[in-house]
Amino acid sequence: MTGRLPGRGRIALAMAGLAYLAAWAFGSKLLYPVAVGLGIAVALAFGAVRLSAVPMRLRREAEAGDNVEGADLRVRLELEVERRLAGVSVHLVEHAARLGTIVTPLTRHGQRQYVGEYELKQAPRGRYRFDEARVVLEDPFGLQRADVLLHGTGGLVVYPRLAELHGLFSDSGSTVGEGRRLLLRRPTGFDLHSVREYEEGESLRKVHWPSTAKRGELMVKELEDAPRDELVVLLDATSASVVGRSPDSSFDAQVRAAGSILRAQTRRGRAAALVVASAAREVVTVRSESDWRAALEVLAAVEPTGRHTAADFLVGDESRAARAFEIAVVTAVLGTGLVERLVERAQRRSAVSCVYVEASTFGDHAGTPFPRYPELLRLRGAGISVAVLRRGDDLASVLSGEAASRAAHG
User: The whole model's pTM is what?
Assistant: First the structure.
């Protein structure tokens, strides 16, 4: 606890001292009660505030339902105290990045509980951690004040606003040249774990010939069952590609698109994984409804901190995205490397789709004509399903393929 004497308290003490000196100097007995009364008032205020500085515990919760970006979020505060406070006013002062300082008056509710609430207007997506929270106690006359620091005050999570999709732009399948359908080949789902010496009676089909040639004796393969994710949604979180300010930035549009696709696929009962190409390289596997909350938490908190391009996540045996049967990439940067990797996967009969967020439309010159990107034409020429998302587009319409269908039919 930290106590301090506010301006009003200092003035009261100064007046008490002056009244006492005046009474002593001029022999005015009428001023003695004034001086003593002011001194007693400050002392009583100090005692009331001091006695009220007891251990406290704060509970913060948003109104019922998921906290979705863009909505007005009402936050309820409950402060539990060790014992009833001695007639002081109670205010909660909180500070969180991007939200600033929030001051909320609390009123007594029962003997040992104080409650209050505030509203965040059009709360943007994010995880808000309150790095500072303190309770300000003050007597009714404002003569004495004390701060009680609170620890472990938690935070708030505001989730991205996802679109309800009843179909996906990639559902029609990929085609190459003259409308021919691509036949997709699933991976076997078994990975080479190690090699060991051949034992008599084992099938020669298990022989690992490169190791046999190297060691000069028969070596057999040890395989482990490593089923691969049916679908991976790769969210490109490269820091250099962001245009606009949250909640209306190109990256926020990417997050909504990635989350909407992942949600639509998991509702179909498909095993899926979210891979975030950020500095943290977060990976969340979603195999059932119970796993969805973890993915939603990652989508709420993700920031464009990536130092590597999305193309770097599509190579290597340890990469979840590289080993996936089907990949859906959400990006605002169609670099040559990424296009090459996606085309290579399509040529290997892997299912590939791409959501391209046209970042330039989120800037100050959003009204300029949309350029035709050769990269988009190359992806489509390779049979890759592509959806282009621009500022102001209806997300559900773009991701479900309705916008492209309407454009194709005039």
Answer: 0.73
